[in-house]
Specification:
It contains four helices and eight strands, in the order βαβαββαβββαβ. The protein is α/β, with parallel strands linked by helices. The chain has one domain. The longest helix has 18 residues. Bound molecules: iron/sulfur cluster. Iron/sulfur cluster binds next to α2.
């Protein structure tokens, strides 16, 4: 079976900033046809759970208390890529709008819920590295 790397929160892991998951039934149903590999880049980057929400701004990532967490997000992206490359994964389904996992549209850095065109740090690295990225809102399989 083909492998797909998936944002762990979409598979029910409580790794989100608020300690909750965002399990997605459509994504979970893929387990019958694919090997799903759960990964949470923010935890892989060393961030605690729960943690303050963060958004991308000016090329970096900042928490809502102003803390610059860019390095942790970059480390998490690199570790997630390491897993994908080690296992020969070519496809990923990542959580929409996240500063790590979002693709095409992300929160704008103002913590108001507003969104702007852009990718999360991990999605960006995956795309650059030749991994096909979709979100739970866009995938068709
Ligand atoms: S970093 Fe990605 S996998 Fe982890 S909680 Fe955020 S959206 Fe989910």
């Amino acid at each position: 079976m083909e492998k797909i790397l998936v944002s762990a929160c979409l598979l029910g892991c409580r790794c989100r900033y608020d300690g909750k998951s965002c399990a997605d039934a459509r994504v979970l149903a893929l387990r019958d046809r694919y090997i799903l590999i759960p990964v949470c880049p923010e935890q892989l980057g060393g961030l605690p759970t729960p943690r303050n929400p963060a958004e991308r701004r000016n090329g970096g990532v900042f928490m809502n208390n102003g803390a610059n967490v860019t390095a942790a997000y970059e480390k998490g992206a690199e570790e997630a890529l390491r897993i994908a490359e080690t296992l020969g994964v070519k496809k990923a389904i990542l959580k929409a709008k996240s500063p790590s996992c979002g693709k095409g549209l992300i929160y704008d850095g103002t913590f108001t819920g507003a969104k702007i065109p852009g990718d999360g740090v991990t999605a960006q690295l995956f795309i650059k590295s030749g991994i096909a990225v979709e979100t739970e809102e866009t995938f068709v399989l």
